[in-house]
Amino acid sequence: MIIKYTLPARLLHWLVALGIIAAFALGLTTDSMEGFSLQKLKLINYHKWLGITVLGLVAIRLLWRLSHRPPELPAQMQPWEKQVAHYTHMLLYVLMFAVPLGGWLYSSAKGFPVVWLGLVELPNLMDKNEELAGTIKFMHKIGAWTLVLLAVAHAAAALKHHFIQKDDVLKRML
Amino acid sequence: MRRTALFLSLLAAGTLGQAQAAPADPAKSSVKFVFTQMNVPVEGQFKKFAADIAFDTAKPDTGKVNIAVDLAATDAGSSDANQAVQMKEWFNTGSYPKATFSASQFKPLGGGKFSATGQFSVKGKTANLTVPFTVKPDAKGSWYEGSFPLSRLAWKIGEGEWSDVGAVADAVQVKFKLYVAK
Ligand code: HEM
Q1: If you take atom 32 of ligand 1, which residue's CA is the nearest one?
Q2: Cβ A38–B38 below 8 Å, yes or no?
Q3: Is A1 or B154 the better-scoring residue by pLDDT?
Q4: Which Pfam families match (chain A) (predicted)?
């Protein structure tokens, strides 16, 4: 009998994963679009809405995680392997907050408020500042790439557990 | 065009005993606007304009106002948008570099408030426009301030795909603050 993560933890895990992939793809798409068009304007706004949704889900996820202990890692794992897994997960949480918050900060720096789903106007995180905006965008980009590459490594580790170690690490998140 | 208007207003001032038309101080004056893009309010500014104002609160019906905005110097909120706004679909500044407003009908609305009715012209279209404003004198001059919604579609600002009011709302709030020294 496998001891799985709780259902909310599993749901949030996959929703956030999907959200990050989609937001990343949208971000790369709008960034490669030249000039200014209606299409670009819409995609940037969808990207912002999606990113804020991810931020909200991550906040709920963290609260859930702090109040629900995940199942123990397999006993046959080396202590250093458990450490690596632990720190990767911590860093993923940090980036899952930092990347969308950085996007929100960038939007504020450019003088564009965030109106989630076109309905809820969020406060600006800073005053308009064109000089800083470029730096913040660069950090948003580096953060997003780090998050996605780390998530890929994280997924590779899960697959290694499943197909090579043949343990329950992947199954308990399904 | 503006020269003639100014000339005419000076002529009128001379013959009818009107207040002398005086230019607004560009350092203290501003013409800003807020447009709504996918429900997101974005602030912009017309950075270059000339305003000549002759207005006496005691004799509003003798007033005259001429404003000319240099549309090429529009800050529409971002560098992308600043370029876009010059294009055919928006201001088409290549063919229509200026927006002008010249009013000579004034009505007191009470409480230091007035309305100016005149011809507003942008992108080759001229039509009547009424603009509310307040006058606040200080020791060295007067502040003329007001804010009003302008329908961008009525003047074809944002054509083609940009006529979609879901993407950019029709109403653009224009906010002006003009200072004329005595
Ligand atoms: C899961 C969260 C997010 C991820 C993975 C993500 C990823 C990205 C990526 C990869 C880019 C392209 C950067 C570049 O190549 O220069 C980008 C751009 C951008 N992001 Fe995000 N982002 C997220 C959340 C947000 C949020 C919450 C906002 C704002 C509320 C935001 C606002 C922006 C903006 C305005 C751009 C620039 C778009 C452009 O000018 O084309 N992002 N994002």
Answers
A1: A103
A2: no
A3: B154
A4: Ni_hydr_CYTB
pLDDT tens track for A25-62: 999 999 999 888 899 999 999 999 999 999 999 999 99
Identify whether A149 is part of a domain: yes
Closest chain A residue by Cα to residue B87: A36
Widest pairwise Cα distance in chain A: 57
Domains contained in chain B, CATH given: 19-181 (2.40.128.110)
Give the CATH number, domain containing residue A66: 1.20.950
- Tell me which residue has its CA closest to atom 34 in ligand 1: A103
The token duo for A85 is 């897994």
Q: Please, which pLDDT band fits residue B17 given cuts at 50, 70 and 90?
A: very low
- Domain span at residue A32? 7-173
Residues A148 and A99: their CA atoms lie apart, in Å, by 10
Q: In the sheet where B64-70 sits, what is the strand order?
A: B22-23, B49-54, B64-70, B98-110, B113-122, B125-138, B141-151, B171-181, B30-37, B40-46, B74-75
| A45/B42 CB distance under 8 A | no
Please tell me whether the interface predicted TM-score (ipTM) of this complex is above 0.90: no
Ramachandran angles phi, psi of A172, nearest 5°: -75, -10
Closest among B146, B152, B128 to B53, alpha carbons compared = B146
The closest alpha carbon to B150, from B78, B99, B85, belongs to B99
